[in-house]
Amino acid sequence: MSVAVRTVTTRRGIEAKVRTLGAEDNPPLLYLHGAGGLLPTEPVLDHLAERFAVFAPEWPGFGEEMTETQIEDMLDFTLHGWDLVDALGLEQPFLAGHSMGGMIAAEMAAINPGGLRGLALLAAAGLWLDDHPVPDIFAMLPFELAEVLFADPRAGEKVLTAGLDFADDDALKRFLVGNARKLGTAGKILFPIPNRRLSKRLYRVTTPTVLVWGAADKLLPTVYAERYRELLTATAAELRIVEGAAHMLPYEQPEATAAAVAGLLG
Amino acid sequence: MKFVWFNLQPWPYLPEDFREKYRSVWVDIPNTLFDPEKGHELYNMYLDQLEFAESLGFDGIGCNEHHQNAYGLMPSPNIIAAGLARRTSDAAICVIGNSIALYNPPLRVAEEFAMLDCISGGRLVAGFPVGTAMDTNFTYGQIPALTRDKYAEAHDMIIQAWTRDEVFAFDGKYNQLRYVNLWPKPVQKPHPPIYIPGGGSIETWDFCLDHDYNYSYLSFNGYKGGKALLDGFWERQAERGDRDDSPYRTSFAQIMCVADTDEEAEKLYAEHVLYFFNRCLHVYPGFSDPAGYRTVDTIKAGKLNQLRKENMEMFTKLTWKDLVDGGFVIAGSPDTVAEQMEYLATSLRVGTVFCLMSIGDMPDWKTRYSTQLFAEKVMPRLRNIWPDHDAEQWWCKPLANRVRHEGDDLNHARRHPDTPEGVL
Fold it and tell me: Reduced to 3 states, what is the DSSP secondary structure of residue B396?
């Protein structure tokens, strides 16, 4: 699958790099990445591009540029999502988001449910259950993350480090700088508790919705998917559990994840 | 030189296997290890020590702010300072300081510091730390990437509140107040001297130089480990060329233990210093640096060791000799300590020293013994290291006619069963 990169400027004046894949006459899908950012290879996008015209923007603060300072709170994040839809000229796109991206996608749907044809929440953050406290990724060391995020931590570590050797100082430093930008930005809506009161707004979502969850998710166990379903009172959200995957399901089972999203096409 | 006596007020009852059993002394330490009845004894012992230090002629006595931390019992340093303001008459009250990004609104800091300045008759030295990640982010829930921005806004509000005579509105990003109208105001004009506890970022050096604030390097790394940071500050000062090089622009915290001889110092203090380094500094590294807390430039310049699995246990292997040779601790006879302190002051170009002399689980009598030897035999030799410089710009300016507390008995020791007869 060929990937093109477009740069668009939103009306707020933020430049965003957007990966585009798939036939232009496919229905458009905006894909919002998680707190780890877009990795060099994103197999789930390839699979999605078989059915959709995929637009995968890099979130402000996640690239090589200096830390983004305009996007500060949840409303800023949500409006930036819609600014991207406008800047890309998308008409009633499908919207999918993973983890942090799922939280933003759900907020976007709550604020403008009619603007979307379908919504896919992949292991979406944004809710908090006292009985199932979300592990604190902000207090984890680089070598501890894979254990929590992947069904197969060994394979996961390779995905996270993209082959970097942590014994090498420069490599570890590059990883930490990247992490500081990505998780630093994510912290604006996820720290210290990933709850910006989305639960009060989900009643507004009338968009057809699918919840796609890794069966072995240890960060946001499937009980969070159930909670989403309860709170999405205006739409009959379908729950699709992906076997052999945990929180990082787009990397662990990209084909099955994409197939679950494509279920929105009917 | 100025000498500030400072205790961190550690909890001295951590079990021997603390490091093996628990992951951190800070943030998520089981609070069942805290015993309020022992806390009663400790707070009073530590406050007495601070008052004792004043009676020996230390220029200042100090306290700081930590939260959910077993080596620092002062989540509210202003409560400690209030006690000291009422029981002392001459020493500067150095609150180093209030983590101003944590107070909503930070007007609270402007108010409480003004109260302390009034009660003490203008003896307040005001510290404004950004605060550690353990305190600021993990305990008080501030968003790491926004902490510095919030700090800058808090600083702006406090300075305006202290210095403006009219009622004004403050339309901040994090704080909005329709009527800022400080009551009471501080005794010292335009405001008490400000100390900025900092790490090694160029932004902090410039912030201190821009405002003529004291750059305070408060760590447990000692004078050898801290040299690079002070060198960086002075290089920046020289490079800018718009500020003088008064050593009173900087202060430095140093752990010190004084005895009759070097041998006696090891015999008396080694176990307590090792308690501090091995148990009290057992902080889970995941709490020390959440993404967004440090700037990207600071990470690029920083050390990585503690983030590696194989290096997580490195403090456990430190011995007394390592600590003394590495300059973490200045310990020994008055001669030994005076020589090393002189070297510290001149090599780092430091005007004010925060003397950390109550270490780990040190009993009261040892702390007082060490402190008294320092005051009588070391301090006089160091007083005039900087004859050409005046501390005035960076020191408090007490009222000439202030309420004094001379009737109080400040010189009694809180006796513990193990205090030898005739030692004090």
Answer: coil
